[in-house]
Amino acid sequence: MIEELLFQLEMAAPQVALGLVNGAFYALLSLGLAVIFGMLNVINFAHGAQFMMGAFVAWLLLNYLGVNYWGALILAPLIVGVFGVALEKVMISRLYKLDHLYGLLLTFGLALIIEGIFRNEFGSSGLPYSPPPSLTGAPVDLGFMLMPKYRLWVVVVSVVVCLATWLVIEKTRLGSYLRAATENAPLVQAFGINVPRMMTLTYAGGVALAALAGVLAAPIYSVNPQMGSSLIIIVFAVVVIGGMGSILGSVITGFALGLLEGLAKVVYPEASATVIFVVMAVVLLTRPAGLFGRA
Questions:
Q1: Nearest Cα to 25, choosing from 57, 47, 45?
Q2: Whether the predicted pLDDT of 5 surpasses 60
Q3: CB 3.0-4.6 Å disulfide test: which of 30, 46, 130, 276 passes with 250?
């Protein structure tokens, strides 16, 4: 019995590691979605395309300008964030007083356009992007499992970025301004705060988080135009389960569902692709506002 249990734990370790990595991406992407929806009330379906853009910008920086991974980790979110600023100024800002459906339709169309442009330019086959030499080599022994260095780095960065974003929004003056602007923008503007600029920077920040996740994902997944569309449905499920607009809920739910998905591949592999959606259905039936959301 004990030997069988140890064997099961040994078999589960690689899937737990994979679940942690997937959970890190779910958390980062759902964090950006939660920030945009919670602060701007816009359902940003283009988030997956912006995640893909982050990976492609890192690849382009390396292959055309010689900028390595560490430089891309800073430059790619900034470049895609600037794209987000232009997008918000031209299109997204016109949706704030309209029904959520308009934002969903617009950003869904933008996602199709962006993905189509990259597919036309680079094709559908994946492009390789190697991790930095300092994050390759022998895996790290965590005691209960071996974890590849780069995947461990992804998990650590995701936790740090998610925690820092939550602290900025919940514990700083800037975050209090953002939360107040979502409740009563005219009153906040009467105190001399530039609310439209805050909205623009909030959208750009959410987009930059997606791009950062894209750079982190580039060495793990092949850089291809479909890499965002394959994740965005799962990420939306994570946001719904955590509670639309709940930043902490999205982060916790992202990591938890990544682990659950990994364990499902060990216990019942056939259910691993649907377990997140089963959880979503159960949560919506029992808590329509999500685990951490407010009605």
A1: 47
A2: no
A3: 30
Tokens read off for 71: 């430089």
- What is d(CA 68, CA 81) in angstroms, rounded to the nearest whole number? 19
SS (H, E, C) the chain: CHHHHHHHHHHHHHHHHHHHHHHHHHHHHHHHHHHHHHHHCCCCCCHHHHHHHHHHHHHHHHHHHCCCHHHHHHHHHHHHHHHHHHHHHHCHHHHCCCCHHHHHHHHHHHHHHHHHHHHHHHCCCCECCCCCHHHCCCCEECCCCEECHHHHHHHHHHHHHHHHHHHHHHHCHHHHHHHHHHHCHHHHHHCCCCHHHHHHHHHHHHHHHHHHHHHHHCCCCCECCCCCHHHHHHHHHHHHHHCCCCHHHHHHHHHHHHHHHHHHHHHCHHHCCCHHHHHHHHHHHHCCCCCCCCC
| Average pLDDT of span 157-169 | 90
Q: CA-to-CA distance for 108 and 120, rounded, in angstroms? A: 18
Asked if residue 57 lies in contact with residue 84, where contact means CB atoms within 8 angstroms, the answer is no
Do 59 and 68 meet the contact criterion of CB atoms below 8 Å apart? no
Q: Domains in the chain, start-ordered, CATH in brackets?
A: 2-122+149-286 (1.10.3470)
Phi and psi of 291, rounded to 5°? -65, -35
pLDDT tens-place string over residues 181-198: 766 667 777 777 787 888
- With b for 16 or more beta-carbon neighbours within 10 A and e for fewer, the 141-171 pattern comes to eeeebebbbbbbbbbebbeebbeebbebbee
CA-to-CA distance for 251 and 23, rounded, in angstroms? 9
Mean pLDDT for the chain? 85
Has residue 142 got a pLDDT over 60? yes
Q: Which residues are CB-neighbours of 191 under 8 A, at least 6 positions away?
A: none
pLDDT at 7: 47
